[in-house]
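Annex B. Sample input.
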Amino acid sequence: MKRKVFALVDCDNFYVSCERVFNPKLKNKPVVVLSNNDGCVISRSNEVKELGIPMGAPIFQYEDVVKKYNIYLLSSNFTLYGDMSRRVMETIKTMCPDIEIYSIDEAFLSFDRFKYFDINDYIKKIKDKVLRWTGIPISIGVGETKTLAKIATKIAKKFKECNGTFNLLDRKDVDEFLKKVEIKDVWGIGKKFEEFLKKNDVISAYDYKYLSYDWVKKHLKTFGLRILLELNGIPCIEIEFEEKPKKSISTSRSFGKDLKDYKDLKEAISSFITIASEKLRKNHQLASIISVFIMSNPFKGGEKYFKVSSHYFSRPTANTLEMIKAGLDELKKIFKDGILYKKAGVILQGLIPEEEGQFFFFDSIYKGSREEILMKTIDNINKKFGRETIKPLSNGILKKYKMRQLNRSPNYTTRWEDIPIVKSG
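Annex B, continued. Sample output.
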């Protein structure tokens, strides 16, 4: 049986690395990227990791550390990160077209067709090319399964002598490395699994690898068996070259300040529907259901309030205006005076390919209709001249619902006016 060869590419401290590409003064400095409304840590430079600030930590709890070490605090800029991710993945494809984009900063590669290549040399070339073309540092691990490739990448990141690449293939000391990998760091092991395994003295990936098949089958079922086999070099999870169609699309925000007026909440919901419908059309899908939810601030006094309301379309649609009308009708049903609202959002569900819509006898077909042509025209204009060049009036102007982003970087790669200008001396 031909041996499988998997690799995992993982961008190092991705959001921080994106910021450093366009702001060189951040290099070798402690940098943190914060979540929506500048609340929690979602990306840290190595310098910050050494200071002991954990991922997900509310930054206000570390104000003294931030001041003492002059840590740069940056607001998240997902438009920039998304575009930089696209550039990284496109660069990788030039050297390995068999790629599964796993997340914004990770991709699995299949090297099955690379039997005449020196794998160690080739992954170093991929790493160098990505850094040269995009400015983003990456780590690459190689193994006989996806799970082992994940572990190899963690090793590549952890030990400086690896220089960002590590290959587990043909190593006789694989078990020695597995002993150094905590059970929580094994792909697929969640919090509950971790707690159960530790109670049974399974502390490392090595311990898990040598569990009995019957014990795993009894206590951890099929999912646990898959991990066991993968740790033993038997592939159970294949590369998925084709992106799976989305089952739902959601857009939600926590507000920079609490909202109490219906008008402000209406503008927020209208804007969220506009964004979600753009994603829907980009995926060439139609939505059968739209759900709207609103919630109060759980950290303040007063009534705790969370409500959801849904509308079922008689004909699946991708028409922003139709969805806004339906969504705002649902908002009216659940809005309550006197509540301080902290978060709201919309969810599009029942998604189907745009060419497979099922309709009632008297419904017009969305595909090829005048409304589809209108939506595509608006999308093309906004793509060329910038988001919200054309937008529904119900989205509002002042946008009181905007998130707090005190230190957000420009959209260097996606907005003309934000492109850096190099001035000659």
